[in-house]
Amino acid sequence: MNEDNNKTIRFSKTTDQKLEKLSQKFGRNKLLLFNQMVDYFYKTSKDPSDISDELLKKMLAKSHDTYTSFIKAQEKILLIPMRQDVSRMISNQEQIVKYFNEQVLKANKELLQSQQGIVRHFTETAQLMKSLKEGQEDKSSLKMQFMYILNNYIKARDSFSFTTSAKEKEELILETRKLVAKL
Asked: How many structural domains are present in the chain?
């Protein structure tokens, strides 16, 4: 007999049937399955009579409490300060945007006023140029009319002879003066 297999355990036929079913289910012989069950309970320190596994529940609850306290500590150390920093950063960004918008609006108003002033200046300049052009055209027209009157006067005077009466000469002068006055 093998030295490892020197002990005998007695159990009921019902227990033997259950052990047989388990060994078939797991594909192991009864001795190997029994040894593994003993090792399992030894390593886990579980009580086989504790079917609801209260020890496991307590360990899970303890682990849960540990994780919860870890998360709360991280929240205090990291998350809350980070959220406060982000809030401050957002507030600062809002102030920067507000200041920027105010400055841009102010600059846009000043630019618009300058452009309106330039438009007014160009309008006035255009009106002055138009007036000067009209005056220039009027002056040119007057010169041409005056030259026409002068040329007619010269022709008429040159056509006079020594026999032309003083009355005719006087009429020519009066007629020429009337034409010049109408200009």
From this structure: 2
- Residue 16 main-chain phi, psi, to 5 deg: -65, -40
Between vectors from CA 83 to CA 81 and to CA 85, what angle results, nearest 5°? 70
**pTM of the full predicted structure?**
0.34
Residue 28 resides in a domain:
yes
Give domain status of residue 132, yes or no: no
3-state SS, one letter per residue, for the chain: CCHHHCCCCCCCHHHHHHHHHHHHHHCCCHHHHHHHHHHHHHHHCCCCCCCCCHHHHHHHHHHHHHHHHHHHHHHHHHHHHHHHHHHHHHHHHHHHHHHHHHHHHHHHHHHHHHHHHHHHHHHHHHHHHHHHHHHHHHHHHHHHHHHHHHHHHHHHHHHCCCCCCHHHHHHHHHHHHHHHHHC
**CATH classification at residue 34:** 1.10.1220
The parent domain of residue 37 ranges over 9-45
175 falls within a domain = yes
CA triple 14-20-22, angle to 5 deg? 105
| The pLDDT of residue 98 is above 50 | yes
Q: What is the pLDDT of residues 18-44, one digit of tens each?
A: 999 999 999 999 999 999 999 988 998
- In-domain check, residue 88: no
Lowest mean pLDDT segment, chosen from 57-61, 81-85, 88-92: 57-61
